[in-house]
Amino acid sequence: MKEKGISKAVISRLPRYYRYLGELLDSGIERISSGELSERMKVTASQIRQDLNNFGGFGQQGYGYNAYVLREEIGKILGLDKMHNMIIVGAGHLGQALGNYGFEKNGFQIIGMFDVDPALKGRLVRGIPIRMLDEMPQFIAEHSVEIAALTIPKDASIEVAKTLTDNGIRAIWNCAHTDLNLILPKDVVVENVHLSDSLMRLSYNLSALKEEEAE
Questions:
Q1: How many CB atoms are located within 10 Å of the residue 52 CB?
Q2: Positions of CATH 3.40.50.720 in the chain
Q3: Residue 112 has what DSSP assignment?
Q4: What percentage of the chain exceeds 70 in pLDDT?
Q5: Which of 61, 104, 113, 125 shows its CA 20 to 30 Å from the CA of 48?
Q6: What average pLDDT does the segment 155-170 reach?
Q7: Could you count the other beta carbons within 10 Å of the beta carbon of residue 17?
Q8: Which is higher by pLDDT, 136 or 176?
Q9: Cα distances (angstroms) measured from residue 190 to each of 44, 138, 144, 181
Q10: How would you classify the pairing of strands 65-66 and 31-32?
């Protein structure tokens, strides 16, 4: 069950729990304590317990967590207990890389890809043909699309995002270099992904490490 008032920091850690628990199950580990999970994730055991207690706890005193049950419950919280139909807008190198990733294992089924380059029309990415952008509104109407991933240049992102929302898309995974949540209606969920921000954080941590080693 989703609870209101949960902090963004807690929500941001849930996908990590989900991923680590999946890795545990793949390696044959079915039960784990908060302490053992803490060692693997580099998050304190107290933090893990606090995070999970926001949703009911899921652990048993003296037993720890059943990895399968915990992962399933976190999946429900994240909305991964059902498949989400998803399209990719922008079928360049990044768009095709995302199309080849295999997100369906986490509940996201890519069912369409779109671009403006006629040279890409009909090219298959994991069996999905690349369509032209002007085909997108009809495709959305016919296929119950919930999520759109944008892998297009910044200059085109605002117009395309508005086209998506005008045609009923309520969730956008935005890899264009602009913050669409500042532009789109409040009832549209946007996750802005800035790869350069991640690299800058990496640069900061690398610089901090070098300074620490030099002292």
A1: 23
A2: 84-197
A3: E
A4: 95
A5: 104
A6: 95
A7: 21
A8: 136
A9: 30, 22, 18, 6
A10: antiparallel
Return the pLDDT at 57: 63
What pLDDT band is residue 1 in, cutting at 50, 70 and 90? very low
| CA dist., res. 74 & res. 58, Å (int) | 10
- Which residue has tokens 């090219």? 123
User: At 87, phi and psi to the nearest 5?
Assistant: -120, 160
Report the alpha-carbon distance of residue 91 to residue 115 in Å, rounded.
6
C-alpha 173/C-alpha 95 separation (Å) is 12
**CA end-to-end span of the chain, whole Å?**
49
Residue written as tokens 């532009």?
A: 183
**Tokens 């919280």, residue located:** 77
Q: What is the pTM of this model?
A: 0.85
Higher pLDDT, 9 or 127: 127
Q: How many CB atoms lie within 10 A of CB 197?
A: 11
| Pairing label, strands 108-115, 128-132 | parallel
Write the pLDDT tens digit of every residue in 142-160: 999 999 999 999 999 999 9
Is the predicted pLDDT of residue 4 greater than 60, yes or no? no
> What CATH topology corresponds to 8-77?
Arc Repressor Mutant, subunit A (1.10.10)
- Closest by Cα among 149, 12, 145, 18 to 76: 18
Task: State the average pLDDT for the chain.
Answer: 91
Pick the CATH number of 84-197 from 3.40.50.720, 3.20.20.190, 2.40.50.100, 3.90.580.10: 3.40.50.720
